[in-house]
Design a protein that fits this description.
Blueprint: H1 5-12, E1 15-18, E2 26-38, E3 41-52, H2 60-66, E4 79-83, E5 93-98, H3 101-105, H4 113-127, E6 130-135, H5 139-142, H6 145-156, H7 161-167, H8 178-187, E7 192-195, H9 199-207, E8 212-216, H10 227-237
Parallel strand pairs: 5-6, 5-7, 7-8
Antiparallel strand pairs: 1-2, 2-3, 3-4, 4-6
Helix pairs in contact: 6-7
């Protein structure tokens, strides 16, 4: 089935090929107006998705045609919700949210991911400008959903999150923010305020070229089911509880 010229023209107008030397090209698509129910109120975000063009055409027309056989449903793609005048606002909040199938979708209380996802969206709206990146290849701190389920089995036997990942042969954290930072740089040039408790994330983003002017911690959603998980974040992964951290270190 051929895609009509009219459809191609509509799509091409909303596509941008993001290039970087010695890196795979990325196709950024958007914005799409996305009305979201947030605490009983409908809030309209601007939604963008992106695709790493590994083994796919880098010309827009050819890329569109290749999607019929690319089988993208068998993998996952990341996206970003943008709110307000993200490009020009003097201050904008950023949340780099790692996908959590169990916490974000099912509402699992074994972690605080679902709480952080929805709370950071509210913080961005209340601030007036920002972006929430939903990073699809970050499940289980980068080990994938199936492997995360194996780690959960070990956690039920008394392992903490770090020990479980290590026992499976993985380091504590495999996540990369390189693609997300390339997308940020297409959407905004000014510094951002990062919503996070994780100093390693701050360091990783800074080392990848993101200009961070401040950070805001996000704690909450604690229950009897995740208290050990949260304590491990602080004790072994260095997550911060206080409201300030030096960004010059």
């Amino acid at each position: 089935m051929m895609i009509s010229e009219k459809v191609r023209d509509i799509l091409i107008d909303r596509m941008k090929i993001v290039k970087q030397e010695n890196k795979e090209d990325i196709c950024l698509v958007g914005p799409v107006k996305l009305p979201v129910q947030l605490d009983g109120e409908t809030v309209t975000f601007q939604w963008y998705t992106w695709l790493k063009l590994e083994g796919l055409p880098t010309e827009k027309e050819k890329l569109i045609e290749s999607l019929l056989t690319a089988d993208l449903a068998s993998s996952q793609q990341s996206s970003v919700l943008v709110y307000g005048d993200f490009k020009q606002a003097e201050e904008a909040y950023i949340r780099m949210h790692s996908i959590c199938h169990t916490g974000d979708i099912f509402g699992s209380q074994r972690c605080d991911c679902g709480y952080q996802l929805h709370q950071s969206m509210k913080m961005i709206v209340e601030q007036g400008s920002g972006a929430l990146f939903y990073l699809a290849n970050h499940e289980g701190r980068g080990i994938g959903l199936f492997t995360k389920s194996l780690a959960y089995i070990l956690q039920q036997e008394g392992y903490d999150t770090v020990e479980a990942n290590n026992a499976l042969g993985f380091p504590d954290d495999l996540r990369s923010y390189e693609e997300a930072i390339r997308v940020i740089k297409e959407l905004r040039k000014k510094p951002v305020t990062l919503i996070t408790n994780n100093p390693k994330k701050i360091a990783a983003l800074k080392s990848s070229g993101l200009t961070i002017q401040d950070h805001i911690p996000l704690w909450g959603g604690e229950s009897d089911y995740n208290s050990f998980y949260l304590a491990t974040k602080v004790e072994k992964s260095g997550h911060i509880l206080e409201s300030e951290i030096s960004l010059t270190k």
